Amino acid sequence: MAEARFLDPSQVHVTLPAEDAGPRVELDGELVVPNATFKRMMPLSDPGSFIALQDAAKKEIGILKNLDGMDEGSKALVNRLLDRQYFTPKVSTIRSLKPEGGMWHFIVETSRGPAEYYVRNWRDSAHEISANRWLVHSVDGQRFEIPTVDKMDVQSQNLLDQLL
Question: CB under 8 Å to 88, separation ≥6 — which residues?
């Protein structure tokens, strides 16, 4: 088994040659990785630490413990790419929750504004990631986080009780 290779953020330079192309990563004096991808290794518990750099074939090149020390342009680009990839609005209020056609129809308020989504089979689509904290996957692949059920308003809690 190969040992993890940790990268020095100051030696990692990231550019985006075109909006429709993947990022190009240069490791000072060593190699260039076209169409690279970045993956958070702990996206829920510690999203700012341990970010894997992979090539186009998804082979791991190395791991960044964090982005501290990376040039500002590269750091901003990596953060933008990760934010897009791991976009997960936080649900603050559930306005409506009804069964429809074998799915649950949610109308909610989130950290990014109002949203509406459907969830099929709650047990397979929702995961309690810590006490009273849920990650929900909609039928169209979106993710929503319910940060703390106990801190939601009473109506939201009562609606969620149908599922929990």
Answer: 135, 143, 144, 145
